[in-house]
């Protein structure tokens, strides 16, 4: 797959990929659409803190998530 600028693919075995998945798990809480949904980080934007996650729920969907990197977890749902 060719990624449009400023996006790039993530290696699923990379330490950074695991970190991004952990940050997402900390940031989403009850009431958020992604709460409890298993995910895999597959892409990241160089322009901001957006990460593309594949939802591992069998739906084939992906989610573009702007991580806030806040220290108060979880965030309030949108």
Written overview of the protein:
- The chain is an alpha+beta fold and 78 residues long.
- Helices cover 17% and strands 27% of the residues.
- The chain is built from 1 helix and 4 strands; from the N terminus they run E-H-E-E-E.
- A hairpin with a 4-residue loop joins strand 2 and strand 3.
- It is globular and about 35 Å long.
Short characterization:
By secondary structure, the protein is of the alpha+beta class. The chain is built from one helix and four strands.
Q: Terminal Cα separation, in Å? A: 31 Å
Helix segment tally: 1
* Class of secondary structure makeup: alpha+beta
Strand content: 25-35%
Taken from the alpha-carbon principal axes, the silhouette is globular
Mean pLDDT level: 90
**How many strands?**
4
Helicity level = 10-25%
Order of helices and strands: EHEEE
Q: Extract low-pLDDT stretches.
A: none
Major β-sheet, in short?
4 strands, antiparallel
What is the spatial order of strands in the main beta sheet? 1-2-3-4
């Amino acid at each position: 797959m060719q990624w449009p600028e400023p996006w790039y693919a993530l290696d699923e075995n990379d330490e950074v990929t695991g970190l991004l998945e952990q940050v997402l798990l900390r940031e989403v809480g009850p009431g958020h659409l992604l709460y409890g949904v298993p995910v895999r980080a597959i892409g990241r934007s160089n322009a901001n803190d957006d990460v593309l996650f594949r939802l591992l729920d069998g739906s084939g969907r992906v989610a573009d998530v702007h991580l806030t990197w806040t220290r108060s977890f979880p965030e309030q749902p949108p």
